[in-house]
Specification:
alpha/beta, elongated
């Protein structure tokens, strides 16, 4: 069973069709007519509030270039588009405010990446501190434009949120990470980030991910799903269903950025993760900051008493590494061992000052 909603990727209509301007003010209608004239470079076919355009993309580009638009007008102007020479309400009608059409236009790079499966994975090693051996990799997604340029995840997810593409992006990111895991040593763990708000139904949204893991021969005990952006979760019952689905299928759960914000302890209690990642702001210069040391020790005690592995994230210096090791961290990750890389290589735990 697959999730048709997650698999569909919206695109900006480029062909001919009819634009319907909903409840236009005379001034706004005049602006639309001027944009139509500029886009069609000829006579505009129109009836009252409906306009036939030979190219919707050209019309929208002309409309957005109109310098007199205010932010409020963009929000108040609702454009309906349907293919064909006359307007009729049907399942093919696309309805957005002008502001939303503009946002979708600006997200063209993301739509192109998703449509052509150009998400790539970079890997950041995670170390088992007591053994000083490789524990796993965090898989970090990048977008790749047609010319090979890489787009950071912050820009990808920012555009996805604005254009209701989180479902699509999160699904492809999870699947890209799993395919990358096929290259890992057999015992190596794979940490995959997921955004809880991007999953609307665990069975429909996640079954394909579970199926792909089995297809690739990746056993569930090798996969750790890392919960990010939990501060945006409004429905904790929904998140619990997601985590229950993962755990029933044998996967582990990690909680990111523990120690950041007043609500992180509450999130720890609600999620009950297998691994907690201590926020890098706690780790930074921790050997010189008594308050950060107290926070770290308290979290280490909570983890130890509840059978949770503690991962120190963002370790950059040998002094930070020495402190977290001596205070009981099980795992560590950070630029001390280099930045995320597209190549796995053969990482070494030993670091030189």
């Amino acid at each position: 069973m697959s999730c048709s909603y997650c698999e569909l990727c919206p695109s900006l209509p480029s062909g001919p069709g009819t634009v319907f301007l909903q409840s236009p003010q005379p001034l706004i209608k005049a602006k639309v007519e001027q944009a139509l004239a500029g886009a069609t470079k000829g006579e505009v076919t129109s009836t009252d509030q409906a306009f036939f355009v030979p190219s919707f993309a050209e019309f929208l580009s002309s409309l957005l270039q109109f310098s007199a638009w205010t932010a409020l007008e963009k929000q108040d102007t609702i454009l309906l588009f349907t293919p064909g020479s006359s307007f009729a309400l049907s399942p093919n009608v696309e309805i957005r405010t002008l502001a939303r059409w503009e946002s979708l236009t600006n997200a063209g790079f993301l739509i192109d990446i998703l449509s052509n499966n150009r998400l790539v994975s970079h890997f950041h090693p995670i170390w088992d501190l007591p053994r000083q051996t490789l524990f796993g990799y965090e898989c970090l997604i990048r977008g790749q434009e047609a010319n090979g340029a890489l787009i950071p995840p912050s820009r990808l997810f920012g555009a996805a949120k604005e254009n209701r593409l989180l479902f699509n992006l999160d699904r492809q990111a999870r699947q890209s990470a799993l395919r990358s895991a096929a290259r890992f040593p057999v015992q190596t763990k794979l940490f995959i980030n997921f955004v809880p708000t991007a999953i609307y139904d665990p069975i429909f949204c996640l079954e394909s991910t579970v199926g792909l893991a089995h297809q690739l021969g990746i056993t569930p005990d090798r996969v750790v799903f890392e919960v990010i952006e939990t501060e945006e979760v409004d429905d904790w019952n929904h998140l619990e269903k997601i985590l229950t689905f993962y755990r029933k299928n044998g996967f582990q759960i990690a909680l990111d950025d523990v120690g950041s914000g007043y609500s992180s302890l509450n999130r720890l209690v609600q999620i009950r993760p297998d691994i907690i990642k201590i926020d890098l702001e706690i780790i930074r210069n921790i050997e010189r900051d008594p308050v950060k040391q107290s926070v770290f020790r308290a979290l280490a005690a909570i983890a130890r008493e509840n059978g949770i592995k503690l991962l120190a994230e963002g370790v950059e210096t040998s002094e930070e590494l020495a402190f977290v090791t001596n205070e009981g961290a099980d795992l560590a990750q950070g630029y001390l061992w280099g930045p995320p890389s597209a190549e796995l290589g053969v990482p070494q735990f030993e670091v030189h000052p």
